[in-house]
Amino acid sequence: MSWMKKSAVLASITSVALVGAACGNDEGNGATDGDALSGKVVMDGSSTVFPIMEAVAEEYSMEQPDVEVTVGVSGTGGGFKRFVTGETDFSNASREIKEEEAAQAEENGVEYTQLAVALDGLSLVVNPENDWAKDITMEELNKMWTDTSVKTWKDVRSDWPAEEISFFAPGKDSGTYDFFDEKVLDGADIRQDSQLSEDDNVLVTGVAGTKGAIGFFGFAYYVENQDTLRALNVEGIEPTHETINDLSYPLSREIFTYVNNASLKDKEQVADFARFMNENAADLSEEVGYVKMEQARYDENAKVIDEIAGE
Fold this sequence. Notes:
The protein has 311 residues and is of the alpha/beta class. The chain has 12 helices and 14 strands. The protein has 2 domains: 3-119 and 254-309, D-Maltodextrin-Binding Protein, domain 2; 123-250, D-Maltodextrin-Binding Protein, domain 2.
């Protein structure tokens, strides 16, 4: 079973705990015998980043079975709500932290570090029965998602059919929504008849089951569901590993995890997991459908992790 197929099942619950053999350990922080570690690593946030971190956590549990890694999927905004109060060690994000979130972290004495983990291309997807729309412009996307007078595909482009449009989008706690808001909506309100969900698999199902539908989410969810969805070119550029890697695709972006500096310094298992994540994120991001960064970026992450962890 692929990582993404597992995610389709797991993302429907609040979080998934990936626990090794000695799951009875509650609060252990550090080494037991030799290089064996115990304790907990608590992570929450973006559903876009979730498949990467789920894969990392499963691989890590094979090396450190006594460390319990919990990966939540409450959305970027939901993850930051917990992170800025010091409740979690890591917060996965498909956007950068907002000023108000950073201010809350400062008020609560939470110092943190941003680590980019991979590249993503937000993908606009339609039902395979849609045989008319192949390419779309940013201006047309803005019109579709903000102008409530647009009811059919013909209202977007005159040579498209009068097929009613159904709109599927991530919820407003999602970093993917925030990115779309910035790049496409230009700060305007998304149309009220959009069907919003924090669960990307719900969006996949909605678009796949509705002929006139359009939706958007991270590239990996499109890649995993190409048999039931079709991606639109944006401004003439197809979302692919190559166009996302060179950032020529207009909706390319970095995706992140944020780590609590105190956790990195004081919890040996958190520092160990951070290093493991950074060493394996490139390969595992590709495996689950995202695009790895240049190795130099991961090398930079490694230096930062070591500096903060005190090694």
